[in-house]
C-alpha cells in the first residue's frame, strides 16, 4: 500500500504488512538476477570501536543479495586501516575499503585539488563522494544504497526495504529515501528534523513565497535521514555538499535531475536510534550547531540558484518567522509526547530552538559574505571531463590498498 503527498510530489511506501526479513530477502535474491545491488558505508575509524558498527557488520554478513559493499574510512592511520581490513573481513560479499587518509587516495585528491575539482573540506560528504566514484569505477551494480555506521538498532531488513523499490524490475524509481519514527529511551529524538528543518521549510514558504521545490522537501517525512538508495547511474551526475548539508543536497540534486514520479520514500524501521550529537562541543562549535548551520546554508544556496532574492533584511524576517513556527511546533510535540507517555523536556527543546534561530542568522551572514563559495563537490561527470581516467585510477588505488602492502 502507498499514499501520495497532497499534490502527488512523491510516493510513500509504508511498512504495513511487517513481512519477515526472510521473505523480503528471498524476493531480493530474485531481483538481484536482473538488478545487481550494492551498499556504501561512510565510516569514521572511531565507529569501528563502538557496538553499533560491529552489529551492522554481523547483520550485513547474513544478507544474500548484495553484490558489493564499499566502505569509506576516515581518520585512520596505517595501523588503523590494517585493523579495518581485518574488522570487515568477516563480510562474505565482495567488499573494498577506501582508506581516505592513505597515500594513494591523498595523492589523487591533491591532483584533483590543483584543478579545483576536489572537496574543499574533510567530512561525510567527501567520504561519500569518493565512495560513489569507486562504485562507478567498479561498475558491478545497477542500484546502490547508503546508510550510516552508527545505527544502534540496525537490523538487515532495513536495507531490504530501502532497496526494494529500486531492485524490483517492475518498478521504475530512480531514488528512494528511508524514513522512520525517531523515538528512543522514552522520548522524542530527531531535534534537527523536528525543530529546525520542518519549521524552517514552512517559514521559507511564508517569507519567500510558494515554491514547488519547498513543497517537494516538505513531502519527505524525514529529509535528514542518512538512509537512501538510487540507481547507480544517478551517481555520475549529482553534485553533493561536502558538509552536513549532504542529505538536503542529495534531495535537491534528485529534484533537479529527475521527475518526482521517479522518487519515493519508504518506511524502513519501527524502531531507530543512533549516536546523538550534543548541541555544541565544549569549544562552542561542532555538534548540532555546526550541523544546523550547514543545513541552512545548503537550503539557501539551492534557493539562490532558483532565483530567489536573499538579502540580510529577509534573513531577519526569516529568523522571526522561524522562531514563532518552531515554538508552535514544539508545543505540538509536547502534546504528542504526553499522549504517547513520553518524556518531554521543554527547557532542552527551547534551548535547541534558540540555537537553531541563531544558526539561521549565522548561515545567512555566511551566505552574504561568501557569495562565490563553491557550494557543491563537482559531479563525477565533470571530473571525468578533466581527468578521463580518474575512475580507473581510483579503482586501482583502492585495489592496491586492499590487496597489497600499505
Structural notes for this entry:
Helices cover 49% and strands 13% of the residues. The protein has 14 helices and eleven strands. The strands form two sheets. It has a nine-stranded mixed sheet with strand order 1-2-11-7-10-6-3-4-5, with helices on both faces. Strands 8-9 form a two-stranded antiparallel ribbon. Strand 8 and strand 9 (187-188) form a beta hairpin. Helix 7 packs antiparallel against helix 8 (212-218), helix 7 crosses helix 12 (346-369) and helix 10 (287-305) packs across helix 12. The longest helix has 28 residues, at 312-339. Mean pLDDT is 91; it is low at 1-7.
Attribute tags:
disordered N terminus; single chain; 406 residues; nine-stranded mixed sheet
Strand content: 5-15%
Residue-averaged pLDDT, rounded? 91
Largest sheet: 9 strands, mixed
Give the CA-CA distance, first to last residue: 50 Å
Strand order of the largest sheet: 1-2-11-7-10-6-3-4-5
The rounded Rg comes to 21 Å
Low-confidence stretches: 1-7
Written as H for each helix and E for each strand, in order along the chain, the element string is EEHEHEHEHHEHEEEHHEHEHHHHH
Can you tell me the overall shape? globular
Number of E-state strands: 11
The helix fraction, in percent, is 40-55%
Structural category is alpha/beta
SS element count, helices: 14
Amino acid at each position: 500500500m502507498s499514499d501520495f503527498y497532497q499534490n502527488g510530489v512523491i510516493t510513500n511506501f509504508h511498512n504495513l504488512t511487517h513481512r519477515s526479513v526472510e521473505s523480503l530477502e528471498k524476493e531480493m535474491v530474485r531481483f538481484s538476477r536482473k538488478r545487481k545491488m550494492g551498499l556504501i558505508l561512510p565510516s569514521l575509524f572511531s565507529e569501528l570501536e563502538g557496538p553499533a558498527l560491529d552489529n551492522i557488520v554481523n547483520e550485513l554478513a547474513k544478507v544474500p543479495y548484495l553484490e558489493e559493499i564499499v566502505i569509506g574510512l576516515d581518520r585512520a592511520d596505517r595501523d588503523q586501516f590494517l585493523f579495518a581490513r581485518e574488522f570487515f573481513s568477516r563480510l562474505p560479499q565482495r567488499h573494498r575499503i577506501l582508506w581516505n587518509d592513505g597515500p594513494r587516495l591523498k595523492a589523487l585528491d591533491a591532483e584533483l585539488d590543483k584543478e579545483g575539482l576536489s572537496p574543499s573540506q574533510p567530512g561525510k560528504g567527501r567520504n561519500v563522494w569518493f565512495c560513489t566514484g569507486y562504485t562507478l569505477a567498479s561498475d558491478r551494480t545497477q542500484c546502490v544504497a547508503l546508510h550510516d555506521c552508527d545505527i544502534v538498532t540496525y537490523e538487515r531488513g532495513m536495507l531490504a526495504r530501502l532497496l526494494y523499490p529500486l531492485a524490483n524490475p517492475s518498478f521504475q524509481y530512480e531514488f528512494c529515501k528511508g524514513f522512520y519514527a525517531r523515538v528512543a529511551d522514552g522520548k522524542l529524538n530527531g531535534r534537527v528534523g523536528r525543530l529546525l528543518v520542518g519549521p524552517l521549510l514552512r517559514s521559507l514558504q511564508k517569507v519567500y513565497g510558494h515554491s514547488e521545490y519547498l513543497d517537494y522537501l516538505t513531502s519527505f517525512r524525514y529529509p535528514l535521514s542518512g538512509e537512501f538508495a538510487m540507481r547507480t547511474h544517478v551517481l555520475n551526475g549529482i553534485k553533493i555538499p561536502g558538509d552536513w548539508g549532504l542529505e538536503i543536497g542529495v534531495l535537491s540534486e534528485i529534484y533537479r535531475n529527475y521527475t518526482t514520479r521517479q522518487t519515493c520514500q519508504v518506511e524502513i524501521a519501527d524502531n531507530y536510534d543512533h549516536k546523538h550529537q550534543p548541541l555544541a562541543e565544549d569549544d562552542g562549535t561542532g555538534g548540532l550547531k555546526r550541523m544546523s548551520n550547514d543545513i541552512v546554508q545548503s537550503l539557501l544556496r539551492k534557493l539562490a540558484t532558483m532565483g530567489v532574492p536573499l538579502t540580510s533584511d529577509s534573513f531577519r524576517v526569516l529568523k522571526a518567522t522561524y522562531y514563532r513556527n518552531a515554538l508552535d511546533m514544539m508545543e505540538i510535540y509536547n502534546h504528542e509526547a504526553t499522549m504517547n507517555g513520553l518524556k518531554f523536556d521543554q527547557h532542552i527543546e527551547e534551548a535547541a530552538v534558540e540555537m537553531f534561530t541563531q544558526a539561521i542568522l549565522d548561515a545567512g551572514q555566511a551566505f552574504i559574505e561568501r557569495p562565490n563559495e563553491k557550494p557543491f563537490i563537482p559531479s563525477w561527470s565533470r571530473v571525468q571531463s578533466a581527468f578521463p581516467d580518474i575512475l580507473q585510477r581510483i579503482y586501482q588505488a583502492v585495489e592496491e590498498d586492499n590487496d597489497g602492502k600499505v
